[in-house]
Amino acid sequence: MPSSPLKCCINPSILSADFVNLASELARISNADAVHVDVMDNDFVPNLTIGLPVVERLQDVSPIPLDAHLMISNVDRWAPQFADAGLSSVTFHVEASDAPIKLARELRARGAKAGMALRPATPVEPYLDMLPELDMLLIMTVEPGFGGQAFLDVMLPKIRRARAAVDGSGVDVAIQVDGGITEETITRAAEAGANVFVAGSAVYGKASPEEAIESLRAKGQLALTPKAPRLNTTAS
Ligand SMILES: O=C(CO)[C@H](O)[C@H](O)COP(=O)(O)O
């Protein structure tokens, strides 16, 4: 583990926001670390959301960095265009890419952080040599496509292995988790080694999304902060 605690970041997913009022929905999460923008094409996943023109307008108006999660096919062709739109980070699914190393380099060359996502059934081990090419590794904790699903606890060992590999390699790669993150599951995900948390329902489903972000952040940060060793106070 690094000597100082990892910073806990909360990235609300606008999949759970009101799509007719996206600008005002951004204002409701002003304390977020980034806005998670779910782009789905009804091919890579069985759902359809927004495309590049809408994301470009969000980029124009958002005071918070945008973090696009591209759940789309033909991602080698599309992802660079999202980077060109000025997004802070662009995450592609490795299962959808023909040339993930080339794509990660292309995203960085265009000024975006490079993120790579893994579906629940995709193992992390084949991609560990790629860590220096990445700024973020997204481990899906639900099947991608829909909000409101239950967190897959079976993903915790994969998060632990990814954290061990990141810390062991000395590269600065964030470990993001997406799907089913709540006040209850964030602690387990953070203890396993995730430090960036996407939350849709657990933020936009609350009366005060900003309070929900603060509460999630406090719980995640607590779990990321190493515990002080317990003193043995029993007399021998
Ligand atoms: O990528 C996603 C779905 O594929 C969403 O970001 C994710 O599901 C967030 O929703 P929730 O926090 O409600 O699970």
Keywords:
TIM Barrel; binds ribulose-5-phosphate; 8 helices; globular; eight-stranded parallel beta sheet; 236 residues; alpha/beta
- Intertermini distance: 33 Å
Low-confidence stretches: none
What is the architecture at the second tier of CATH? Alpha-Beta Barrel
**Mean pLDDT level:** 95
How large is the radius of gyration?
A: 18 Å
**What count of helical segments does DSSP give?**
8
Estimate what percentage of residues fall within beta strands: 15-25%
Number of domains: 1
Strand order of the largest sheet: 1-8-7-6-5-4-3-2
Total strands: 8
Major sheet characteristics:
8 strands, parallel
Which of globular, elongated, flat, extended, rod-shaped describes the shape? globular
The secondary structure category is: alpha/beta
* Percent helix range: 25-40%
Q: Can you tell me the CATH superfamily?
A: Aldolase class I
Q: If you consult CATH, what is the topology?
A: TIM Barrel
- SSE pattern: EHEHEHEHEEHEHEHH
CATH class label: Alpha Beta
GO molecular function, one term: D-ribulose-phosphate 3-epimerase activity
Enzyme class: isomerase
Cofactor: Co(2+); Zn(2+); Mn(2+); Fe(2+)
Catalytic activity: D-ribulose 5-phosphate = D-xylulose 5-phosphate
